[in-house]
Amino acid sequence: xxxxxxxxxxxxxxxxxxxxxxxxxxxxxxxxxxxxxxxxxxxxxxxxxxxxxxxxxxxxxxxxxxxxxxxxxxxxxxxxxxxxxxxxxxxxxxxxxxxxxxxxxxxxxxxxxxxxxxxxxxxxxxxxxxxxxxxxxxxxxxxxxxxxxxxxxxxxxxxxxxxxxxxxxxxxxxxxxxxxxxxxxxxxxxxxxxxxxxxxxxxxxxxxxxxxxxxxxxxxxxxxxxxxxxxxxxxxxxxxxxxxxxxxxxxxxxxxxxxxxxxxxxxxxxxxxxxxxxxxxxxxxxxxxxxxxxxxxxxxxxxxxxxxxxxxxxxxxxxxxxxxxxxxxxxxxxxxxxxxxxxxxxxxxxxxxxxxxxxxxxxxxxxxxxxxxxxxxxxxxxxxxxxxxxxxxxxxxxxxxxxxxxxxxxxxxxxxxxxxxxxxxxxxxxxxxxxxxxxxxxxxxxxxxxxxxxxxxxxxxxxxxxxxxxxxxxxxxxxxxxxxxxxxxxxxxxxxxxxxxxxxxxxxxxxxxxxxxxxxxxxxxxxxxxxxxxxxxxxxxxxxxxxxxxxxxxxxxxxxxxxxxxxxxxxxxxxxxxxxxxxxxxxxxxxxxxxxxxxxxxxxxxxxxx
Length: 610
Fold this sequence. Notes:
This protein has 13 helices and 40 strands. The protein is of the alpha+beta class. It folds into three domains: about 5 and about 20-300 and about 310-350, Glycosidases (TIM Barrel), CATH 3.20.20.80; about 360-370 and about 500-595, Sandwich (Jelly Rolls), CATH 2.60.120; about 385-490, Sandwich (Jelly Rolls), CATH 2.60.120. The longest helix is centred in the N-terminal third of the chain and has 19 residues, at about 140-155. Strand 10 (about 200-205), helix 8 and strand 11 form a beta-alpha-beta unit. The two termini are about 35 Å apart.
């Protein structure tokens, strides 16, 4: 919908009622009365659906009156046209549960969400389309977003406060001012929301700098800010630019996320509570990011890029939030609750839930199964091509691809290199590991053979970039493989989308051959009388993936900081449970069940704006 097509339709008029949230003279109103949004981010897609109600109850106990959530497009439309809103993707059920808990809801439909989520929420089939121009007025991009919004936005519209639901606000795009300045695109998103029935408050959210606000805000729509500190400075900036608008911190970063190979980011309870005090002292509304972080189950963790190297995000999204990854209440929970009670006296009367029960610690015996390469070769029929194909060309979003060729190597030592490798490759010659390649252009020296060899590269997509100008970058081998200066041709490729494997796929790979070697598949049995939460450690293991009863929990990696994977109670059953490991480098001797998380050595989070 264009601006002219939208015409003079005002928010609320399509439903015949004014929006629940309005503002005048810098004061936010709910149904005409002064109001503060005291919100917290909780992403339904990072929490098992059987635990949604419990986590929402904990947000209410924290002192919040609103929950906010992103909607990741790629989570709902993994394949073009295959849209899914069932089970763990039932957004409408999640929003109704929030209403049952007495919470309002803010929905952030993107289409781009960042969120440290794979590809910033954009589907791989879209970003792998040649010539696609993301987050712009590029017609093919707008057409794809329009089709997605046709599926999504009416579902949100039906849950708006004006129709008896809890949705009181909807965000336009997401921190667009950190990315670009195509204002016609941002207006198009705004009009696409209104044209599909959004009548409640619309707002933009950007960092508290003139550059970011200039790029992302829209005249006529509330401009909010995202930050972790200096609230008075942010409030002054917004008020100087947008007179008459209430101060709204759409993301208050009271914690932070982690990358593999770095430290575990934390923020002290007192420091976070003092910054929250500053927002409230400015009369501001606020949303805690995160109130409860949850988990990047499967392969949904995204990645950043610092200009020199990829920074893949860990499986845990605990984010040092007030409500921990498994639902436990942290010292930060109680510190923030005390500050929120100062502006809402009813908070003190809300019951505080007990922490969820945990399984008793124990050690599980490991049974080796198929070795690495034999198991992976058996998992899928090969695709053949004269050159190595990228993940996008193979129609694969995530996981691994095993690339195989048989080049003739001279008798002297040679260099095997990969151009535009995204992201990491283990190199094997005749089944023996010879090195690991990491980065856009990497190489390894291989001993000469004077004959044809079986050259295999196991390439891992470590998470699609979710933020910045490299958003949408492809995965796999994009530029070819060379032996010295000579290109290697005639490849076979095994597609290994681990997050799409059914239990039968796992079993076929794990039983492909007798165990041998240092890496491959292994299993452990876990007997449980009464299911409860647990944390799984894999001491001595190198790098790999862990399933429980056929559900992929996520990645593990000895580089840390994360040392345990969260195992939610609903994924266990009374009796025998099966843990399956795909170890790509080096087996440990055992699997250990722990009654507490180990997320790595802490490092105090420090906010910066680039």
